[in-house]
Amino acid sequence: MMPQDIHPIAFVGAGPGDPDLLTVKAVNCLMWADVVLHDRLVPAEILALAPQAQLISVGKEGFGPSVTQDEINRLLVETARTGARTVRLKGGDPAVYARLAEEVDAAEEAGLSYHVVPGITAASAATAALGESLTKRGRNAALRLLTGHDMKGFAEQDWKALARPGEVAAIYMGKRAARFIQGRLMMHGADPATPVTLVENASRADQRIVPTTLSHLYADLSEAELNGPAITLYGLAPRAAQAAAETFIEEAL
């Protein structure tokens, strides 16, 4: 059975960018799609899996030119109502900072059914690149997924809780908010030596990893000149760097 025979709309996670990290279900949806409404950062290699489909870019860019959410909702409903098998292809996982709820609301209000195909989110891909774990016994029993900015500007968080030793957070869209995040955390008592790692283009051939510490976050980010999408992993260092630091501490003692 074709994956969209039951529902006219599929919200599909394209993962972090490496086509090999797509789910089988995501590939099937693309193979049978008539129309694909895709994010700006979905790579050509993934779009090539739907050669039969009409491709419509509905990308958004932080602080840059973007297709409005109202326009995306309109296109989604309009396309599905023609009877076309419609895929809304979102980078990462559709349910993580991808406005899935707003588009689902639009589909339901139009009387259109849908299904959601999850994808690998950037936090998972970036942490895998470090050889690290998002959770670890004895270190962090919780994980926070945060956004660097919201509709009002830089996003406020529970900084006091985040500043506690051992906390781990994956910060999406955090490049422009780096100085703000750094200042808020240190103001609330976070250790300046807390490891922070920036991962640009996680999982892709041009992936870059920039390890730093909270006190050097803004300076190292500026020096790195990251142009692609990047996720900030607060409380995590690349595994090799972490092991070297622990060895140095043990020898010093």
TrEMBL record:
Lineage top rank: taxon: Bacteria
Signal peptide: none
NCBIfam families: cobA_cysG_Cterm, PRK06136.1
GO biological process assignments: methylation; siroheme biosynthetic process
PROSITE patterns: SUMT_1 (PS00839)
UniProt record similarity statement: Belongs to the precorrin methyltransferase family.
Pathway: Porphyrin-containing compound metabolism; siroheme biosynthesis; precorrin-2 from uroporphyrinogen III: step 1/1
E.C. code: 2.1.1.107
Molecular function terms, GO-annotated: uroporphyrin-III C-methyltransferase activity
Protein name per Swiss-Prot or TrEMBL: uroporphyrinogen-III C-methyltransferase
Gene3D superfamilies referenced in this protein's UniProt entry, alphabetically: Cobalt-precorrin-4 Transmethylase, Domain 1, Methyltransferase, Cobalt-precorrin-4 Transmethylase, Domain 2
InterPro entries from the UniProt entry: 4pyrrol_Mease, 4pyrrol_Methylase_sf, 4pyrrole_Mease_sub1, 4pyrrole_Mease_sub2, CobA/CysG_C, Siro_Cobalamin_biosynth, Uropor_MeTrfase_CS
UniProt keywords, alphabetically: Methyltransferase, Porphyrin biosynthesis, S-adenosyl-L-methionine, Transferase
UniProt domain Tetrapyrrole methylase: residue ranges: 9-217
Pfam families registered for this protein in UniProt: TP_methylase (PF00590)
CDD domains on file: SUMT
Organism (species): Allosediminivita pacifica
